[in-house]
Amino acid sequence: MKQADVVSRGLGLPLAYGEYPGAPMVDSEEELRAKVANTLAPGLIKGLTQGPDAPVSPVAAEPTPGSIVFKGTLDEIQEYFYQKLWTDGMPIIPPTQQRVDAFLKFTDRTAEEVLRAVPQEGREVTIQSIALTGVMSGCRPEYMPLLIAVIEAMCEPDFHIEHCGSTPGWEPLVVVSGPIIKQLDFNYGQGVMRVGRQANTTVGRFVRMFLRNICGYRIPPGAGDKGSIGFSFNVALAEDEDTAHEIGWPTYGMDQGFKPEDSVVTVRSVVAITPPTYSGGSKAKDHVQQFADVMGATFTYWSHTGMKRGFWHPLIVVGPSIARVIAREWSKDEVRKFLFDTVKVTAAKATHFASMTSTPTFSLEKLVAEGTLPKTYHESDDPERLVRVFIHEAMTGILVAGDPGRNQSRGYMGNHDQAPPTSKKIIFPKNWETLLPTIKK
To answer: Is residue 55 included in any domain, yes or no?
Structure first.
């Protein structure tokens, strides 16, 4: 109900809604019927016939861009921002005008430029707001072109930024491709996906700070984020492009349609991460079969969400030593095809998982009939028939990164059609080449 109020204020529209008290999935049939009849249905009928009880609750006035919101010691600033729900619970870098201006020097775009208005709170995204959020998150000023590209990707309509506060608690993941990896010192080897390297860590934190402060996705005492049991932000993931080139695989950026010399960010959802997947052997199948067995088990549980929409994008991060073995025999497309053909679940199990989540009406037969899924998903009515977990083989992302001295890979699972891989080329200021030597010093 609190989230509904946030949405209403963000839209600037009065909304009428009914309330179901509690979680219907854990109520008995008798309890469910009683709550619908006595609480939910009357509220819905009243809303549909009479409209909302009250106008939209007023929104507190916000500081004007560039204004000073507080003066004090570092400790006082931290406390003030925390009480205002402007932090992620960790210390922030105070966004002084001098620091914000330092970021703005790394873009040719004006501070006042508006990218779009974003939910939940209907706030405008400006170049200045990106710079300010970058400062607070601990980014360096030279990250600014990348930060703009990240937000441009998240502002694309197909990204569905309006779903970032949904109950599964998924987190965006930024994948970095191209020369920018080395220019900004991203980690792509041992320890990748750990906090510790400034570029990887602060870019990941920046995304979460943006979702809190600009979009309004806050946990209590805020109300915009409804992640039931969330997890921490993902640090940015950079690919070991040297290994990819060496073994003859296209890089992840190239898979997204860009040239090797392009610097690119791709933002995608991650709702779950597989166990570390160790594999051994001198043949490609030795390793990819292990991907199917271990990563496939994690992907299987959530595959019904993709089946409901015919849209799903798992990501597999392959360790460099393993990628070298696989690439001696198989291309990325052959890896995708093997996983597509191998990882399967019974129709009964997929239906069960769907009903336990939020879709008791889940029906493969209906999804095939309406054209969401191909005919292979309903070739019979046998509940024990096997159906594919990977809906379309081309949707599986493959990326090389990690410890070259170990045999570990890992999978990252997206949340159906929410935040599919969305890429943007990084646009540098005209004087980037002049600034670059200064940056490296």
So the answer is: no
